[in-house]
Design a protein that fits this description.
single chain, 93 residues, mainly beta, five-stranded mixed β-sheet, 1 helix, globular
Length: 93
């Protein structure tokens, strides 16, 4: 979704990841993901995207295999909340 220009990774000062993800949903993002460290403490960054909308393409387009699903949470497989790679995270619905 980032490559399509339809996603953001956002930090809102004073809010944790779950609070930021909630704000992204309220703002109209069709998918928002809250991030947690290995100890299940909330990070600060959240992801929001526009999958399943008229602007999305490929697997994320309307009717695409990823358009209807959105993990709500991601837990780091390593210590901390650094975002070194997508493989760092275990996603849950």
């Amino acid at each position: 979704m980032h490559a399509q220009g339809l996603a953001v990774d956002l930090v809102i000062c004073g809010m944790n990841s779950a609070e930021t993800a909630k704000r992204l949903r309220e703002a109209g993002f069709t998918c928002s993901i809250a991030y947690y460290d290995k100890d299940q403490q909330p990070c600060h960054m959240a992801h929001g995207d526009l999958r399943g909308t008229k602007w999305a393409e490929g697997a994320y387009a309307l009717g695409g295999k990823k358009a209807e699903t959105c993990p709500r949470r991601a837990f780091s497989k390593t210590v901390g909340c650094g975002n070194q790679s997508k493989d760092q995270w275990k996603y849950q619905r």
